[in-house]
Amino acid sequence: MFRLFSFIALFLATNVLAAPKSELWDFWNISDESNAQVISHQPWQQFLDRYLVTEGENTLVRYVRVSSDDKQNLKRYLEQLASIDPRTLNQAEQYAYWVNLYNAITVDLILDRYPVKSITKLGGLFSFGPWGDDVITIAGQTLTLNDIEHRILRPIWNDPRTHYAVNCASLGCPNLQTQAFNAQNSNALLDQAAATYINSSKGINIQGDKATLSSIYEWFAEDFSAQGGVMAHISQYRPEVAQFKGKLDYDYDWALNSK
Fold it and tell me: What is the distance between the alpha carbons of residues 56 and 195, in angstroms, rounded to a whole number?
């Protein structure tokens, strides 16, 4: 029995540390730049307006206060997005579509199991969180949260700022944005989210000759290589970091982003 539990602990630890690679799912790498269709994300915006609150460095979700009607409205919003084939949209609309979809699904998963102390408690017996679970079907394809982030968003857009856009319902994560993404505001929101996170203690906390960085920068270091690496990327938003020559450590808080 002890050996069994030891194996389980090792299995879970390995899965925590082994972040998924960016691997393109070719099916989704299509767009129609001539399509001027605009997807409404107003239902998601209404949810954010009602249930997000900022405390210190964190933007928190008041899960306990979400009404039954708003839970159903969120599910209807997801059904609305699932009825759209995003490949017919232009890339700017697609990016907003996938980010909002990811974040809304994550909140919906938490609400279905609330109260829960951490998103890592969701998923199957041997799962560290729900990211590998089938969560939605779009254009005849069944997707997981991992698919959306690591097989669509990361490889198609190759923008490391995507890590500041998708939210994993945890305190260590970049905050869930108070605005829904759309084709017009995505770039500004990404820069704002990056600057906010990097200038917070959960992004990088410097104490003397030691800096504790978010584990995001360890898990996905390769995504920042095109910008000269993690520290070069961080320095764009926090210039004094460029002079730091001390020891680097990594940390991440998986506690639920709950109010």
Answer: 15
CA distances from 185 to 104, 180, 188 (A): 18, 9, 5
Q: Give 105-163 pLDDT, tens digit per residue.
A: 999 999 999 999 999 999 877 789 999 999 999 999 999 999 999 999 999 999 999 99
Rounded to an integer, the average pLDDT of 38-67 is 98
What DSSP state is assigned to residue 164?
G
Nearest to 151, CA basis, from 14, 17, 28, 32: 28
Which pLDDT tens digit goes with each residue over 61-89?
Answer: 999 999 999 999 999 999 999 999 999 99
- The phi, psi pair for 155, rounded to 5°, reads -75, -30
Sequence letter at residue 138 = I
**Phi/psi class of residue 57: alpha, beta or left (left: φ > 0; alpha: ψ in -120 to 50)?**
alpha
Write down the residue that tokens 């008041």 correspond to: 62
**Distance from C-alpha of 119 to C-alpha of 169, rounded to nearest angstrom:** 7
C-alpha 92, offset from chain centre: 18
On the question of pLDDT at 215 being above 50, the answer is yes
* CB-count exposure of residue 84 (10 Å: 0-12, 13-18, 19+): middle
